[in-house]
Structures are given as structure tokens and as C-alpha cells.
């Protein structure tokens, strides 16, 4: 029964291109991912079976819609067709949170009566560019971000009131001003129209503040499994000094803090560092500190000062780590490295480097984070030889 259900083919699959495995039974998707990870990583060690999802639908806690008009002038919302700036009109996406999608449909229906024009990329006319909805799956808190080309939003208070009448679950509404001709979704300026300008969610027993620009894993259910594995691999006993490189809003470091002596999170993005410090305070975690800056340079400075770290958690972007960064890890010489990767190909490249430098791979665990797409998250445990 379950297998049949998973073969529901999304009507937008061909045009949208966001899901590469639409129409493929879920068990077959997991098999493909397992084979891909194994093909790339088995030379380093045993690849455990991928941890799949019980229910692989409607899992994305962050939903982004772009607004436009069709040839007849009707307002449409959806996503850009893969590799283009053509908007594919989408009524329902099978992997995005249902409630967030309802809110986007409501906003689309309100634009006409509020005389709000959608932004035209070619002419630069119009106001509403995108809508971003983020939902805390464990708290139920909802953030709506209206991305506009100019700060002047007609009858904004009435607009928010009308929207919240239909969706009282909305906790905060933020106006984000993006007046640049750019493919970036969010601009620099923000005006909070309702609520606090952020939401909270709970993950692995810790509470996190999520702002419009915060990086937060899109699959809450599987993130708990992923971070649980990462902390398990670190084998913390309460005596270790831990570095959380690329720490973002402090998620992994805060989750690990209960089992470590001391955690230092390092992150380049200053907004993320501010959120991380607030998260530590709100969770009453006192054995963690955050530094704004380059994690590689920070570890090199530690090594030069003769300081030690027992465990380094690293969770780099899709492009993986730079050789410069990996060299700084080698200099610091932690007993264990726990590498969380969202791209098995760059992970293979980086493991090649680390295993030539006195580290061996103990375990490789793929975790399904992006059902119906060809992306797989992998957590790898390395130890000094």
C-alpha cells in the first residue's frame, strides 16, 4: 500500500525539476542513494544503510514561492523552472509543508483586493517578489516573510490583519526589502510588521531562534536523527573540548554541549553568531562560546598557541571544505573529526585528503534529508591513527 502511495507523480515534476526522483518508489530512491554513497565512499570504510523517512511527504519546514503573472495577466505563485527564471505555477508541492503552502495560496488570493502588483523582473515594476514561510515543526510557530521591491507596502496593517484572520497560527510577519536586480531572494533590510521577527523551534531538546535569514535544516524530523548520530560518533564523556566549525546558529554545538566539557562555535556570518549567542542564553547553556570569523584561521591560531581540541564537528556547504581549512584541522590535531556533509562527492574528495594525513574513517552513515531529490546527507566519524 505504502509503495503505491509513494508513486504519486507530481504534475509539475517535468517543468519544475526540483525533485529528480518523482514517480520512483521510495524504497528504490533509498537504494539509489545507498548505491551512490557506497560507490563514492566504500574505499574509506563501511557505509551503513541509509536511514530513510517513515513519511517522505510534506517535510520541508521552509517554503519559498516566487510571484508573477501568466500570459493572461492572472497572478501565479510557484518556483523557478530548473536553470531558468520562468515561474512554474504550483498549487501543491508534495515535499513542502502543507500549512505553509496554504498561507501562500491565501496571500496570492489577497493581492488583487489590496491592489498589490507582482514584481516584473524585466521591467523592474511591481512590488511583491517572493514569499517565504518558515514553520517550527515542534512548536507550530509560523513566520511569513514578504519580499518586496520597495519599503512602501500599501495598507500593510490591514493586509496583516486580513491574513491573520484566515491564519491565526502566524506568529510573525516580516517585510524584507530587496530592491536589487539580483537572483538573491532576500535583501538586506527588514521591517517587522507583526510579532517578534523570528520564530522558535525545538530540536534534540534544545530551543532555537530562527530569523528570516537563519540557516536551519529544512527537514526537522531527520535532522534530529542526523545530529543524534553526529553526537554519538563524537563519543563525548564530559571531558572534551569541542570545536563546532561552520556553526551557523549553534545547532550542533548546543546539542553536543550537554555531553562535553566546553564547546566553541565558529561562524563567519555575524547575524548567525548573534542568534547562536541568544540560543545559548535561552537554553541556559554556559559551557559554549561563539566566535565570529573564519573557522580555519581560528583553529590555526589555537594550534599556534599550543591549545588543543578533542573533537571537531564540521558541517561545510555543498562545495565541501577547502584544503586550507582541512590543513588547519590537521594542525589542531583533534582525536576525532565528525564530518557532516550534504554532498557525498565533495566528502569523498575531503576524506581522501584527511585519510592521507593520519586519520582513519571509523563509520559512514547516510541519512535521508531530501526525499524525492538526488541529495543525500552523510555523517562520517574519523579518528587519529
TrEMBL record:
Q: Where does S-adenosyl-L-methionine bind?
A: 217, 246, 267, 315
What's one GO MF term for it? methyltransferase activity
Query: Which Pfam family is an annotated match for this chain, by its short name?
Result: tRNA_U5-meth_tr
Name of the gene this protein is made from: rlmD
Task: Cite a single GO BP annotation.
Answer: methylation
Q: Which PROSITE patterns does the UniProt entry name for this protein? A: SAM_MT_RNA_M5U, TRMA_1
UniProt source species: Blautia faecis
Enzyme Commission number(s) of this protein? 2.1.1.190
Q: Which family does it belong to?
A: Belongs to the class I-like SAM-binding methyltransferase superfamily. RNA M5U methyltransferase family.
Query: What protein name is recorded for this chain?
Result: 23S rRNA (Uracil(1939)-C(5))-methyltransferase RlmD
UniProt-listed InterPro entries: MeTrfase_TrmA_AS, SAM-dependent_MTases_sf, U5_MeTrfase_fam
Alphabetically ordered keywords of this record = Methyltransferase, S-adenosyl-L-methionine, Transferase
* CDD domains associated with the record: AdoMet_MTases
Active-site residues from the entry: 342 (nucleophile), 342
